[in-house]
Design a protein that fits this description.
The protein has 107 residues and is mainly alpha-helical. It is built from three helices and no strands. The chain has helices spanning 5-24, 59-63, 68-106.
């Protein structure tokens, strides 16, 4: 005879609770995991020097690469794009206001 669905669900719920409890338990029973040797850290990798952080926030390092002319051009391009976006937004709002007024007075 096949087991009932309710019995199966009770057993699954019990297993789920056991899994959750084991995740929060303080047992030090850790399993030994078989790790692929390709993913292990080699001793030879630690021989290469570690990267050190830049002094401060590093802005000086990045600013010296771009000439001032390029920065001004980039700033002008950004301003132009923002102007275009603002003009589009104003036009859309204006058209929507006209549509609302038409809907109010003609319907």
């Amino acid at each position: 005879m096949a087991e009932k669905r309710s019995d199966y669900r009770k057993r699954q719920k019990k297993n789920l609770l056991d899994k959750v409890k084991s995740a929060f338990s303080n047992d030090d029973t850790t399993e030994e995991v078989d790790v692929n040797p390709d993913f292990k850290k080699d001793k030879s990798d630690s021989a290469e020097p570690r990267r050190r952080p830049l002094a401060g926030d590093g802005r000086e390092f990045y600013k010296q690469e771009q000439p001032i002319v390029d920065q001004e051009k980039i700033r002008a391009d950004k301003a132009l794009r923002l102007k275009k976006r603002l003009n589009r937004a104003i036009l859309i709002v204006f058209v929507l206001i006209i549509l609302v007024l038409l809907a109010l007075f003609h319907l």
